[in-house]
Amino acid sequence: MVKLQNLSIKLDKFELKSINLNIEQGEIFAILGPTGSGKSTLLESIAGFYIPDNGKIFINGRDISFLPPEERNLGFVYQDYSLFPHLTVYKNIEFGLKIKQLFKGERSKKINELTDFLGITHLLDRYPNSLSGGEQQRAALARALVINPKLLLMDEPFSSLDSNTKEKMYDVLQTIHKKFNCTIIFVTHDISEAKRLANRVGIICNGSLKVVHQADKLTEAMIY
Questions:
Q1: What is the DSSP string of 172-195?
Q2: pTM for this predicted structure
Q3: Which domains, from first to last, does the chain contain?
Q4: What is the pLDDT of residues 101-133, one digit of tens each?
């Protein structure tokens, strides 16, 4: 599904160094590492926020290294959710569909079906600053999923949630994975979260991908 081939990107004083990685169709893959290791930069590179200095990025065998994010058919959920504060939840979710120029009736149908599935239909007229963390995350997920991406990228999506909300969102993510049959790549610094959700885990440090492990066999010693 996703192939990184000798991917290198220089950003000021930081550099991703010759990343080679294959992620399978339908896999949940975690990128794990300490703060400043390059986890988010790697995820954002797959999303198209940075252009490689060297190497290539493939999605489903297609070289997308120089394609803009909107042409990569992926959804992205930011750590702080990054909902547009001046738009209602409905308008936030609708944003990607308007870019794709779907008719209004089709947009409305897709939004209502998805928000019903995520349990946030009652929030559609609300603004982001009036929502709880869990509600914001569901709204951000809806915005990412409404375009039916085959690849969902999530940057530390659970880090700001309390433990009870986090457990609920773990279940939501696994349900999304089954319902949408999408490949999911998420960034985390939490080994228990990686083991709970992922099939495999890539450990990154100082801009280099050190090793890839099966999630259920991961230990603290493997990270440090």
A1: HHHHHHHHH--EEEEEES-HHHHH
A2: 0.92
A3: 1-73+152-157+183-224 (3.40.50.300), 75-148 (no CATH)
A4: 888 898 999 999 999 999 999 999 999 999 998
